[in-house]
Amino acid sequence: MSQPDLVVTKPLILWLLGDGKPGHQNQSLGLAEALARRGPCEVHRISIVGKRGFLARLKAANQASAGLPKPDLIISAGHATHIALLWLARKHRAKSIVLMSPSLPTSWFDLCIVPAHDFPHGSKKANLILTRGALNRVAPPETCDRSGRMILIGGPSSSHGWDGRQLLDSLAEISATGDWQLTDSRRTPAGFLDQIRQSLPAIEVFPHQETTADWLPEKLAGAAEIWVTEDSVSMIYEALSSGAKVGLLPAPRNQNHSRVLRGLEQLIVDGFFTPFAMWEKSRALKVPNSILREADRCAEEVIRRFDHPQTG
Questions:
Q1: Does 172 share its domain with 245?
Q2: Which domain holds residue 258?
């Protein structure tokens, strides 16, 4: 990976406020780890898991943060964290960074980092950064020695249905090209992994419940080729952040004009990955036109905006 444009020279104290949801946690850690690639960061995680109502969340945040060093930045994702984020930032005179389109006015936060599909017509708000997809923890490795082959399986969602038979047929074609490793998500229908084990022995299966939080980012960073089902937006952007060649497995679409599908179609047009139908003709995944480095881009912008001591 090339050297970052900006480097933090004074240690940053980061508080990550979390609601316990893995997707939200990955976004906050993605930004924190990108900041840490630019210099020393001291990261503290504050949990309000299971707390209902803003008073209970404020109390939990206050208790969890007691005794921690004064933060420079407080980062969170998830609607349940918003009021506590603002309260902690004001109490400690820290900058508030929310990693989604907030349920409260964007002007209340120092910075909002939001997927562009939430603002399809763009925005000129000074405290808003639009990204391709949500931030994640995956970053291309420093070396080019990559040999892994990964398959990421999602499941039914508001935008997509499920066709296990079609997916198994597609996986059979892919696994004929060699050995692959596969993991699923919490939305993958029960029993599907057993079907893969029984019918496709060339695919080594790793249920997501049996992997650690660091397992998938590390696997993706070492992969040369990745296939991902189009129903899983988060997995798609993780794959595209890895620097690997990426293929897109089809899934039945419930809608034809949703913001999620518009985003997928634009990624195809922009040459980020190879649809399965195109791969069937060439039997090759194309090199992406570019690699998504959204967490790194946002980390650079955070340093610029909040004027921390820097060199570069």
A1: yes
A2: 148-282
Distance (Å, whole) CA 157 – CA 252:
10
Can you tell me the distance from the alpha carbon of 141 to that of 162, in angstroms, rounded to the nearest whole number? Answer: 33
Residue 193 tokens read as 């992994």
Q: Which two tokens stand for residue 133?
A: 């997809």
Closest CA to 19 of 93, 103, 72, 75: 75
CA angle 244, 249, 250 (to 5 degrees): 150
In a domain, 67, yes or no: yes
Q: What is the pLDDT of residues 87-124, one digit of tens each?
A: 999 999 999 999 988 889 999 999 999 988 787 777 88
Domain check: are 181 and 99 in the same one? no
Task: Report how many helices (DSSP H) and strands (DSSP E) the chain contains, helices first.
Answer: 10, 14
Spatial separation of the C-alpha atoms in residues 87 and 78, rounded to whole Å: 15
* Mutual angle of helices 294-306 and 22-36, in 10-degree steps: 60
159 & 270 share domain: yes
Pair (69, 180) in one structural domain:
no
Count of domains observed in the chain: 2
Q: pLDDT tens for residues 17-67? A: 999 888 899 999 999 999 999 989 999 999 998 888 889 999 999 999 999
Q: What angle do CA 198, 180, 159 make, to 5 degrees?
A: 80
Query: What's the token pair of residue 93?
Result: 């005179």
